[in-house]
Amino acid sequence: MIKVKDLHKHFGGFHAVDGANLEIAEGSITGLIGPNGAGKTTLFNVIAGVLEPTAGRVTMAGKDITGLPPHELFHKGLLRTFQIAHEFSSMTCRENLMMVPGNQSGERLWNTWFGRRRIANEERALRAKADEVLEFLTIEHLADHRAGQVSGGQKKLLELGRTMMVDARIVFLDEVGAGVNRTLLNTIADAIIRLNKERQYTFVVIEHDMDFIGRLCDPVICMAEGRVLAEGTLAEIKANEQVIEAYLGTGLKNKVNT
């Protein structure tokens, strides 16, 4: 689905992404791991249009999407979440979800005067869909809570819920487990697996929790110094000497074996 060819992103003399090449298969849950500073989040930002590449090419389903802005990629079904959840804190969880779909009739001034029935019908449909998403994610009890007042893990679930309010094809999850307790992390993992199997979502997951990666992801891609270092199953990645060296000889080996 996604092909990245010789991708570069430079910040002055620093090469955050330095000739990365990879492919994301449709229907997969692909893990992206690597030491801090490996270029993982920068790679996400370039693919998702947050940053323009210095060089290289990104294609989606065979079509060039290099440098397209996030709103255009959103309409193509490419979405991403962030390490720190971005919610509208003063709005309810339900309202946060209802805001996601674009081109709503209520966004146009003319319709607020002459299209009130259409707006009301759309809002009823959006509310019903938002409630369905909240139930799917097992956080329906938070529907009327202000999003800024729920826990960090629940905010991550809410971000995942936003992708369900539109026709997402591929979702990039950036450290979805960061700061999340184990119970909620399992809930997030369950939701990702269901979305992948039941709704054919393709996922790419940056994560440092190897148990989480091992449960969800095949294949796993390891980056180091802005390049793809290795790709395979988690077991193959764990046994790869270059990967172990990238984690300073002990970091990954100890982390996944303890």
Question: Would you give an account of this structure?
Answer:
With 258 residues, the protein is an alpha/beta fold. The protein has a domain at 2-88 and 166-257: Rossmann fold, CATH 3.40.50.300. Helix content is 40%, strand content 22%. The chain contains 11 helices and 10 strands. The protein has helices at 40-47, 70-75, 93-98, 109-114, 116-136, 152-164, 182-199, 210-216, 234-239, 241-246, 251-257, and strands spanning 2-11, 14-24, 29-33, 55-60, 63-64, 78-80, 170-174, 202-206, 220-224, 227-232. The strands form 2 sheets. Strands 6-7-8-3-9-10 form a 6-stranded mixed β-sheet. Strands 2-1-4-5 form a 4-stranded antiparallel β-sheet, with helices on one face. Strand 4 and strand 5 form a beta hairpin. The radius of gyration is 19 Å and the shape is globular. The two termini are 35 Å apart. The relative contact order is 0.17. The model has no long low-confidence stretch (mean pLDDT 90). Residues 2-250 form the ABC transporter domain. Keywords: ATP-binding, Nucleotide-binding, Transport. It holds the Pfam family BCA_ABC_TP_C. InterPro entries: AAA+_ATPase, ABC_AA/LPS_Transport, ABC_transporter-like_ATP-bd, ABC_transporter-like_CS, BCA_ABC_TP_C, P-loop_NTPase. One of its GO terms (molecular function) is ATP binding.
